[in-house]
Amino acid sequence: MTQSVSLLGATTSARDSTRSSARTSAPPTTDQPKMRAEALKAYFGATEVLKGVTLPVASHTVTAIIGPSGCGKSTFIRCLNRMHEVVAGARVAGKVLLDHQDIYAPDVDPVRVRRRVGMVFQKPNPFPTMTIRENVLSGLVLNGLRPKDPGELVERALRQVALWDEVKDVLNRSGTSLSGGQQQRLCIARSLALEPEVLLMDEPCSALDPIATARVEELIHELRERYTIVIVTHNMQQAARVADFTAFFYLGELVEHDRTDVIFTRPSEKKTEDYITGRFG
Amino acid sequence: MSTLQKHTDREYEAELEKLKEQVLFMGARTEELLTQAMRAFAERDADGARLTMRIDRQVDQLELDIDQLCLKILARRQPVASDLRFITTTMKLVTDLERIGDLGVNVCERVIELSAEPPLPATQSVTRIAEAALGMLHDALDAFVAGNTELAEEVIERDGQVDAYYAQLFPELLQLMMKDAGSVFRATRLQSIAKYLERIADHATNVAEMVVFMVRGKDVRHAFALSRTDD
Questions:
Q1: Which residues of A touch B3 (CB under 8 A)?
Q2: Which of A236, A275, A277 should one mutate to test binding to chain B, selecting the residue with the greatest count of B CBs within 10 A?
Q3: A39-A45-A51 Cα angle (round to 5)
């Protein structure tokens, strides 16, 4: 298990990579949340885009955030690693707890939060002037960190995203020489190289073909053993396939949050029912 | 179910509507088969029974058509929530309707055999079972159309009444056979018809249970089975 580490000063926790991969058949619960948003509000200027969302994110599970465009789902996950506030005029109210510590407490360093809570974006965005190897290490370099054994770290990160065998002989090629699906896996490897505890994914497959999508989804299944994942997706079948929990957002509010199988077979809220069955608007 | 809006995709909406219509048509044909079979039974009409048996071919064809439409919708639309429950319920429901059709054919076969024989006094007791079983099927299908779980639950409860009627018939037939050995052929045919009707009530119960699942997303099958055992 991940060690609980202070957000204030300690270095990134050492992770026990031997965590048991056995998953029981019992349904997942949110009894032990890794993160928890509490009455979270987000604003762009005077516009309130999140209207007091309370949502636990269970440890070592995948939580999918679904909802129509403009419902606040991307804003929500950007609040989970303090990325929202980097936009001019954007601000946040409420709490986001990471291992019971509020990441918005005044003495918390947002850079440290982002190392523990990594993010993968919609469009694969490897640094174009960097090689594959440099891309994997870029997060560490930008954080002023020097890994003891960079070669070992690059291999480990690329193996975790099942890209090592495909690129091990071309590590010095540009990251942008890879296919779209490979580039996205490279970006995931870049996030994993920082050994985050939570991985936020903002529509990570929307620019990928079905085969590349299937590979990323398979990867999400594997990563769940070691990381806590929150994924924003427009593709409801994807949410149904990869997520343990699904949260439906509408107009900045959390309408419903439950086990994915419950959401897609017998949701409690009519709004959820209408949205997932395609009866909206 | 009825409070849901229409799908944004009109073609999808039309496919689901068509599926519902086909299930209703299959239900109506099944009811017609049973009604005609029992009319032939009451009137000792062998020709009528033979004609009635032909309805089953239409019921069988509808089962194939509905299954195919369900598969098409599953493959193309990946339905979820109430739509998923509607499709999966329909796929199971048509199997019950098809079996009911087969049992109706069995009734007709026995009617043909009995029509050449003198009547037995136990006919009324069989008719009583038929009325109860057919009423259950009719209400189960109405519950399906309206998404009416109260009616569906009432149907489930009524299965016990049919079982009781069936249990009462057996000693009646036994007595007839003990009194007159010449009635054994007819009494065993009546016994078979009663058994087919009792099975039809069981299938109607299945349909009603599926309606509850379709509307509420709650599987009531085991709960009711347990309460019946407890009684």
A1: 270
A2: A277
A3: 20
Mark yes or no for CB contact A277/B3 under 8 Å. no
Q: Which ipTM did the prediction report?
A: 0.77
Residues of A with Cβ-Cβ distance to B79 under 8 angstroms: 277
A125, A187 Cβ separation under 8 angstroms: yes
Q: Which residues have C-beta within 8 Å of that of residue A24, sequence separation ≥ 6?
A: none
B5 in any annotated domain:
no
Q: Is A138 helix (H, G, I), strand (E, B) or coil?
A: helix
Spatial separation of the C-alpha atoms in residues A95 and A80, rounded to whole Å: 10
Q: Is residue B197 part of a domain?
A: yes
Cβ contact (<8 Å) for A279 and B3? no
* Number of domains chain B contains: 1
pLDDT above 60: residue B231: no
pLDDT digits (tens, 9 = 90+) for B20-50: 999 999 999 999 999 999 999 999 999 999 9
How many contacts, defined by CB atoms under 8 Å, are there between A and B? 47
Nearest to A113 by CA among A36, A262, A189, A6: A6
> Which of B8, B12, B85 shows the shortest C-beta gap to A281?
B8
Beta strand spans in chain B (E): none
Q: List, for residues B82-128, the tens digit of each pLDDT value.
A: 999 999 999 999 999 999 999 999 999 999 999 999 988 888 899 99
Residues of B in contact with A265 (CB under 8 A): 80-81, 84-85, 217
Radius of gyration, alpha carbons of chain B: 19
Total-model pTM: 0.82
* CATH number of the domain enclosing B64: 1.20.58.220
Residue B208 lies inside a defined structural domain of this protein: yes
Find tokens 């516009």 and name the residue: A47
- Residue B63 sits in which domain range? 10-230
**What domains are there in chain A, each with its CATH number?**
10-23+32-276 (3.40.50.300)
Does the pLDDT at position A16 exceed 60? no
